[in-house]
Specification:
Blueprint lengths: L2 H15 L3 H57 L2 H11 L4 H32 L1 H5 L1 H8 L1 H7 L2 H7 L3 H21 L8 H24 L9 H10 L1 H8 L6 H11 L1 H34 L4 H30 L7 H27 L4 H60 L1
Helix pairs in contact: 1-15, 2-4, 2-6, 2-9, 2-13, 2-14, 3-4, 3-8, 3-14, 4-7, 4-11, 6-10, 7-10, 9-10, 12-17, 13-14, 13-17, 14-15, 14-16, 14-17, 15-16, 16-17
């Protein structure tokens, strides 16, 4: 980032610091950051231990199961984490309307989870490789009901993250400690997703109690017509969320088929630290999302902050990749260094995509445009995955992901430019 950009960013930060929204944003960012600590930094604490106990093969099985379950998770989310967050944020003073949005989304997600679990069971019975890994896949799958019960999107929308974040932090700390007592040999890898799943379910039940009993929101009975309408309204965003799996989770699954679970473990090792930074990006993006739904004029400030931080983070991760892999994973994961460096560069592309896609096109009700951009990027990425993964193994997966994210970021920025020019022309 050059000096001029830093000066502009500094002036914008000073101006924004004096606004009333500053305290809300800082508070939400702090609590969302703690929530990410519960979900992602705690696994980092166990990473060196697990890497040495379960090895690349165990890591590979967990990575493969996560790639499979990611499809199920995307179906159960169905884009509600964006559309419902936007709708609640824009109607949060109307408690009855918010309760109806919350109820319809919760019942819709329950229906979609049951539907997707049936599809998963059919696939496990039909595909031999899935059947061989059925135990770890189902252990990982139980995270999905936990995600459904824990409506993180709702807390973001009403901008009240304090109580549920603290609850998550304490509970997941407990389950992190349990891993050191339970996982003692390679075959114990199955306990890692099981403990995480149990934690998600308990957090979800506690969160529902907070929303319904402490804050006084209502849970209305399910109405099929309203559930169908709720699903239909979020379909464009669902497609937008689903399509990246064509190049992301699909390429990981492809790697497992072509090169075995050890190759999955090498890729997963290189993806650990970039994923942590992706989730930090997600914290910033989700912190600003409900705010930008009310204050569209602050998008330029957000873009300077978000993309600037991502460039700095990418550079740091590329430089520190050899050291981080050696310290946290050991010499057996030395092949993960190149993968980590490639994925670190893709952080910048992902930031551009979030800035001009999620936090611009969706908030301005251009879901269909973003859907088309994502479909194009994902299909191209999926097509490139087959030769890249076949010839270059784990590095091929990293190249596929980075290239696809570049396309997604570039096309999102082009879409942003077109809309801004059209708006200027109308004015």
């Amino acid at each position: 980032m050059n000096l001029q950009m830093m000066n502009i960013l500094s002036k914008k930060l000073q101006s924004f610091h004096s606004s009333k929204d500053y305290i809300t944003l800082v508070s939400n960012f702090g609590y969302l950051s703690l929530l990410q600590v519960a979900g992602y930094i705690f696994p980092l604490i166990t990473m060196p231990y697990l890497a040495r106990v379960i090895g690349p093969e165990g890591f590979g099985k967990l990575a493969f199961a996560s790639a499979v379950v990611m499809w199920i998770q995307t179906i159960s989310d169905w884009g509600f984490n964006y559309t419902a967050t936007r709708d609640v944020a824009q109607n949060r003073d109307d408690k009855d309307k918010v309760s109806r949005i919350f109820s319809n989304v919760l019942w819709a997600r329950c229906f979609l989870t049951v539907f997707s679990s049936v599809i998963l069971t059919i696939l496990v019975l039909v595909i031999p490789y899935l059947r061989e890994n059925a135990l770890v896949i189902y252990a990982t799958f139980f995270m999905v009901p936990g995600h459904v019960l824990f409506p993180e999107w709702f807390f973001q929308a009403i901008e009240r993250m304090k109580y549920t974040t603290i609850f998550n932090l304490v509970l997941k700390f407990f389950f992190t400690i349990m891993i050191f007592f339970i996982v003692k040999e390679p075959d114990d890898y199955i306990w890692s997703p099981l403990l995480t799943s149990i934690g998600y379910v308990i957090c979800g039940l506690g969160s529902l109690n907070l929303i319904l009993n402490s804050w006084g929101y209502k849970l209305y009975k399910p109405q099929l017509k309203e559930i169908y309408s709720t699903i239909l309204r979020s379909t464009d965003v669902f497609i937008n969320n689903l399509m990246p799996n064509l190049y992301n989770s699909f390429s990981v699954m492809l790697l497992g088929f072509f090169s075995g679970v050890s190759a999955n473990g090498i890729y997963d090792g290189g993806n650990k630290f970039p994923t942590i930074f992706y989730n930090l990006q997600g914290v910033i993006s989700r912190t600003f999302y409900p705010f930008l739904s009310r204050r569209a004029d602050k998008h330029k400030f957000f873009s300077f902050l978000y993309i600037g931080m991502s460039i700095i983070g990418a550079i740091i991760l590329v430089i520190l990749s050899p050291l981080l892999i050696n310290i946290f994973l050991g010499s057996q994961f030395s092949d993960s260094v190149s993968i980590m460096q490639i994925l670190s560069v893709s952080i910048i592309f992902l930031a551009i995509s979030n800035t001009y896609g999620t936090n611009y096109l969706i908030l301005r009700h251009h879901e269909r445009e973003l859907r088309n951009i994502t479909i194009i990027s994902s299909i191209v990425g999926m097509a490139s995955a087959v030769p890249l993964v076949y010839y270059y193994d784990a590095i091929g997966v990293a190249l596929t992901v980075a290239f696809s994210r570049f396309l997604l970021g570039f096309l999102s920025f082009v879409g942003f430019i077109k809309i801004e020019r059209k708006k200027s022309f109308l004015i």
